[in-house]
Amino acid sequence: MTIIHNLGFPRIGADRELKRAQEAYWAGKNSLDGLLATGQALRARHWAIQAEAGAHWVPVGDFAWYDHILEWTTLLGAVPARFGQADDAPVELDTLFRMARGRAPSGTPAAACEMTKWFDTNYHYIVPELHPDQTYRIARESLFEQVAEAQALGHRARPVIPGPLTWLWLGKGDAYAGGADDAAKLELLPGLLAVYEQVLQRLAAQGVEWVQIDEPILVLDLPPAWREALAGVYARLAEQGLKVLLATYFGSVEHHLDEIRRLPVQGLHVDLVRAPGQQAAVLAALRDDQVLSLGVIDGRNVWRADLDRVHEQVRAAAQRLGGRLWLAPSCSLLHAPIDLGLETALDNELRSWLSFAVQKLDELRLLRGLVDDEADEADQRALAAARQAVRSRAASSRIHRRDVAERLAASGAVRRERTPFGERIAAQQARLGLPRYPTTTIGSFPQTPEIRALRRDWRTGALGDAAYEKAIRQEIERVVRFQEEIGLDVLVHGEPERNDMVEYFGELLAGFAFTAHGWVQSYGSRCVKPPLIYGDVARLAPMTVAWSSYAQSLTDRPVKGMLTGPVTILQWSFVRDDQPREQTCRQIALALRDEVQDLEQAGVTVIQIDEPAFREGLPLRRGDWAAYLDWAVDSFRLSTSGVRDDTQIHTHMCYSEFNDIIEAIAEMDADVITIETSRSNMELLGAFEAFSYPNDIGPGVYDIHSPNVPREDWMVDLMRRAAQRLPAERLWVNPDCGLKTRGWPETRAALQSMVQAARALREAA
């Protein structure tokens, strides 16, 4: 019988139980024992779901209290010195939390570790900090404890651990300034591998048969030294008494098959959703003593699979491999919502097109029945329903709009080159009259429980439209008056009406649908509920103009109109898979262009179009970059085309590396770009300096993902370092990102310090 299995399961809980338990613990409202009990209950529930669906093993180690890379970093004892970790003491959970967010219920607050995107997803990982004399040891017992938990519940446990090369590749340090591919990091391998060996030995002693070692960097273009390191790494790991499933995902490994085929591993997992064309080459390279795991159910999107098409896709592999064929999702289901069964409000037709984590496991079971020709009567009924859903979606009239197609075809006529930046910025300064080192925020202000309750009551009908609008206006006025009071130069309205920077716009655009429980983890306790883009996108009516116009009417200072950019709306949604992504992105850009023009006509002089996901969408292979950057830049410029020279266009990007795409960022031609730099200590400015970035830039000086309040002198020092790299007259002072997740006391204190820092800089100039 063909084996089905899973690479990882969402950890947050169907009702975001983990998030609630974490945040209660951080706030002192939950005990450590209570938090640990929640985690244990979730693991047991999720293992049971996978076992009942027919998974041969349950993955163990995919659970994480904040991020799976941080879990592994702390297991290795790779804790930066500023967190005060004793060399021979176990790493406590509070130390892990302080590394992630700067503070925890116990321990001294310290600067949090850097955070960035996990490959091309919207999941964030905590970057391992590396230094040349680093030592490693088994410093946490959680992995082994969880294996024992799963075994005690009667499950076959298959541990999941990050591969040593992937962990090193993702790490950074002052001594490794060459970037992610710095070969000097490989000097850390001997000490690192010694701990990997100890981990595998201990797992073998627990009776574990297989271990899943994730090496997603194998889909990248690796430098020679990293490719050459593979053989030595896996020769050592293969000697520890366990069978190794080498797991790759998010792309093809065809370009590394010469190295992979020689590795002494017993199994290989490849992603056939992202890279279906690699199957023949992988089959040809597979040894007779190896199993092949094919990732054929999309772990990163929500659309039901065409099981007949997938069956045809894997038929050749099944005929050749027999029992050596395993079937799985393309990657961990971490990136998918948990259970479609909770979505009772979706209409039946749309719901029939969807598949969440639980349903994807069911799809695997049905696929196994097709492959092994063993589908029972119940399975045949389920297969008939699946086939009908695929036909329904392909033929549905709600997907395609002729007016959108015609407008997109004619969109080239609306594009025109903007006036050179030097002329634009002079016109904008004449209109805005901003001081040197102008201050602003990124857009959102704290989303208090009262604001969330207000929106909830309005949505459920408990609060009428007039009362809701009055309350939102009162909150906008409160935020505007606060910003005037502390002396910010360019204000925002605070976004109290917005639940999420993508969901808000999707609710006002044609072609989008929404779930009630479709949550996925972004980082730590931060969960997002991505919209579903199922059809052609168009703006139905103005989306932000009324709120922005009201805010501007309250003050003589400029108030930014706040929009989410086309690439970010695309990336942070579950996107239709029946047309090229760039076509959907340009549809979104045209809808935003209408909004930009309406804002300008309403007297809004500064408009920010956020693109934090711009780099996230970059293909993992460099050879594919040019095509993506072409349509991504074009979509941004399409959304801003036609504005007046004295209307200032801002964009915002956070938690990304820009060095290798700085030219494309410059081609976006935003008047001002704001970026994250406080957590990375102004490191990202190197790219802008080396490129001689021509427009204004706001390097963030306030890490909004930590509750720590930055000191004025610290922010002044950061900006002085920035002024050594870029002309001071083109620098803005701002936080790293929006403030919706922060509380008012820390926000007030931090922004007051930020404004004082800007004043000190002006006085010293």
From TrEMBL:
Key words, A-Z: Amino-acid biosynthesis, Metal-binding, Methionine biosynthesis, Methyltransferase, Repeat, Transferase, Zinc
E.C. no: 2.1.1.14
One Pfam family linked to the record: Meth_synt_2
UniProt-annotated catalytic positions: 705 (proton donor)
Membrane-spanning intervals of the chain: none
Keyword Amino-acid biosynthesis on entry: yes
Entry-linked SUPFAM superfamilies: UROD/MetE-like
Annotated 5-methyltetrahydropteroyltri-L-glutamate binding sites: 16-19, 117, 526-527, 572, 616
Cofactor: Zn(2+)
UniProt source species: Castellaniella ginsengisoli
Binding site for Zn(2+): 652, 654, 676, 737
Cofactor remark from the record: Binds 1 zinc ion per subunit.
Record-stated family: Belongs to the vitamin-B12 independent methionine synthase family.
Keyword ATP-binding attached: no
Swiss-Prot/TrEMBL catalytic activity: 5-methyltetrahydropteroyltri-L-glutamate + L-homocysteine = tetrahydropteroyltri-L-glutamate + L-methionine
Gene3D superfamilies referenced in this protein's UniProt entry, alphabetically: 3.20.20.210
Residues reported in the UniProt entry to bind L-homocysteine: 442-444, 495, 610
Upper classification of the organism: Bacteria, Pseudomonadati, Pseudomonadota, Betaproteobacteria, Burkholderiales
Domain Cobalamin-independent methionine synthase MetE N-terminal: 5-320
Domain Cobalamin-independent methionine synthase MetE C-terminal/archaeal intervals: 438-759
Function as written in the Swiss-Prot or TrEMBL entry: Catalyzes the transfer of a methyl group from 5-methyltetrahydrofolate to homocysteine resulting in methionine formation.
Signal peptide: none
Pathway: Amino-acid biosynthesis; L-methionine biosynthesis via de novo pathway; L-methionine from L-homocysteine (MetE route): step 1/1
Identification of the protein by name: 5-methyltetrahydropteroyltriglutamate--homocysteine methyltransferase
Protein residues bound to L-methionine: 442-444, 495, 610
